What does this fold into?
Amino acid sequence: MTCNEVRENLVAYLHGELDKETVMGIHHHLSACEVCVQEEIALRRTNRLLDQFQFEALPDNFDAKLHRKIQQTQPASRKIKSDFRQIIYAIAATILIMLGIQFIGSRIFQSTQQSIHFKDFPTTQAIFKSETSRSLSESTLKKQFMQRYLQSGKNGKMKIER
It folds into this structure.
């Protein structure tokens, strides 16, 4: 056995709570390890010292008194928890109401706005001035506009020809 195993079982060893194999392993280890022997001696002294004290038995109704005292203190803690829950629920309800108002407001605002189409932008003809002379289709113009727009996001500003 190792020192750690012996130390873990030393109290049970002193109280006679171990099986024969473990007891024999501890005996063998104690015969070779001075540190563990000192630990055993210290535990035996502590046990003898504790045996000198007489502990009073608890009164018969101790459990009932303790139980009543615990019950008397519990309502205060439950009230605090209840108040805390009410605050959390109020905050959650407020957040939900605000989100609902924002959602409804955004729907109303969107329905009052006119939809914007590609052909409504006056800059598209100026940007593609040279291409319009070739009479390109609107879908081709859209593709070129998007390509230049995406490139402008990488390089800085988009050039507008006039």
Notes: The CA atoms of residues 131 and 140 lie 10 Å apart. The two ends are 94 Å apart (CA to CA). Residues 121-155 form one domain.
